[in-house]
Design goal:
Elements lengths: L16 H8 L4 H8 L13 E4 L17 E2 L8 H4 L3 H4 L4 E3 L12 H9 L4 E6 L6 H7 L5 E5 L5 H8 L4 H17 L6 E8 L7 H11 L5 E5 L16 H18 L3 E3 L4 H10 L8 H4 E4 L4 E3 L9 E2 L5 H5 L2 H8 L9 H4 L12 H9 L2 E2 L3 E3 L3
Parallel strand pairs: 1-3, 1-9, 3-4, 4-5, 5-6, 6-7, 7-8
Antiparallel strand pairs: 2-13, 9-10, 10-11, 12-13
Helix pairs in contact: 9-10
The chain binds S-adenosylmethionine and iron/sulfur cluster (SF4) (2 copies).
One iron/sulfur cluster binds next to helix 12 and helix 15.
């Protein structure tokens, strides 16, 4: 099937499910059989060992590329410490917890008591933030206790930061990170291990090496993770890799060499473009996903999803027990549609996270640009 000729349903403007399924079933039979093997269904009676939770559905910024500029959460809310305690029975089973998935963790008023509660258990902890609201109190609570911290910076000059992230805050973030690193040195701890993440677009490719310099300057142990722009609205479509693959490939190549030269880890998510195309052809949706067998994804209003990329609600932890959600009919049905190309959940068909989403595929990008219903109950803003 020619990927450039994907036909949409004129009534809904969505890509018909049959078209998406036929993209999956183009694979050779031996690979298809391999792909249908599911993760072992041995979860029954056990607990999740990983979870992610958005502590708030808010953000202090509005990055021009972010889903928050195009979609709204079901509810503008945050979780209180008291409500969070409904998850306490789960904590002793967890190996890791991500304190964010789609919004800004530092906008949650009760972050510190919640974090203190989690630290009573032996759990690897992580979140990603824009870093603007990292106060002295928060820094002192995180240093030596949080395992990983990612700080998102898209725009490494003052003007570019304002253009991309919407506010004049680059200097604030730089100062906050300097304080955090000074506190790490004072306490002689490597935690939280730091990573800088940046979104790469056609008009900021020349800043990649500057982001690597920034990571070096602050001593980010985990280096730089670069994500290709995913377009959530038509306004962003001219800036995605498909608009000029050659220019992207050259810039990423240069960044890989520069990172090597200055000794900073550099990870383009999904690989360099050629690598991504090859992996997508080789694996694509045939890559097995085991996420809904390992954990759950929580929203601050209590809603529960099988993973952070899903829009299929499977319960509410203020009302239902984790045990009932984990072993319940809704999650069982969802699991059945994760890795089966003949019966795949819509979420999984469109997933660009744990599948090798072909970065240059117009089908992937069109879905993101046009879908009205988004991860975790978000809905497209009405203009
Ligand atoms: C949605 S944010 C939530 C956490 C936090 N507010 C932050 O910015 O790190 C998570 C990550 O998604 C990235 N991101 C947001 N919109 C994106 C897009 N359209 N394409 C690629 N990455 C994007 C952000 O840069 C950030 O690193
Ligand atoms: S800081 Fe994070 S959540 Fe906030 S708008 Fe930017 S990418 Fe989105
Ligand atoms: S949406 Fe993606 S991450 Fe979630 S279960 Fe499906 S394939 Fe896995």
């Amino acid at each position: 099937m020619d990927r450039t000729e994907i036909k949409r349903d004129p009534a809904t403007n969505q890509i018909p499910e049959q078209t998406l399924i036929s993209r999956l079933t183009e694979m050779p039979v031996d690979l298809r059989e391999k792909r249908i093997q599911r993760p072992v269904d041995d979860h029954l009676g056990k607990f999740p060992t990983h979870c992610d939770i958005d502590l708030s559905t808010k953000c202090n910024l509005r990055c021009r590329f972010c889903h928050l500029s195009f979609h709204e959460p079901e509810e503008w809310t945050q979780i209180s410490y008291d409500k969070f305690l409904a998850l306490e029975p789960l904590l002793r089973h967890l190996k890791s917890i991500s304190l964010f998935s789609k919004y800004e963790t530092l906008t949650c008023r009760d972050l510190l008591p919640i974090f203190d509660k989690i630290c009573e258990y032996d759990i690897e902890t992580y979140f990603s933030t824009n870093g603007v609201l990292l106060s002295d109190e928060i820094i002192s609570a995180l240093v030596g206790r949080l395992t990983f911290l990612t700080v998102s910076i898209t725009g490494i000059t003052r003007d570019s930061y304002i253009k991309n992230m919407g506010q004049d805050r680059l200097e604030t973030v730089r100062q906050n990170l300097a304080k955090l690193c000074a506190e790490k040195r004072r306490l002689k701890t490597e935690y939280p291990r730091l990573r800088i993440t940046t979104v790469c677009m056609l008009d900021n490719l020349d800043e990649l090496c500057g982001v690597l310099d920034f990571a070096k300057e602050i001593g980010a142990e985990e280096g730089v993770r670069m994500t290709y722009l995913r377009p959530f609205g038509q306004e962003m479509a001219d800036l995605i890799p498909a608009s000029d693959p050659e220019k992207f490939a050259t810039a990423i190549d240069e960044a890989i060499k520069y990172a090597d030269k200055i000794g900073v880890k550099f990870e383009p998510v999904g690989g360099a473009l050629e690598e991504n195309e090859n992996d997508a052809k080789e694996l694509g949706h045939r890559k097995l996903c085991s996420i809904p067998w390992e954990g759950l994804s929580f929203q601050p209003n209590g809603d529960v999803y099988p993973c952070a990329l899903s829009n299929s609600k499977i319960g509410n932890f203020f009302e239902d027990s984790i045990d009932d959600i984990w072993n319940g009919e809704k999650l069982t049905q969802f699991r059945a549609g994760v890795n089966d190309p003949e019966n795949m959940n819509e979420d999984c068909l469109n997933c660009g996270h744990c599948r090798y989403a072909p970065i240059l595929d117009p089908g992937t990008n069109e879905y993101l640009i046009n879908t009205d219903n988004f991860w975790g109950g978000m809905k497209r803003k009405k203009l």
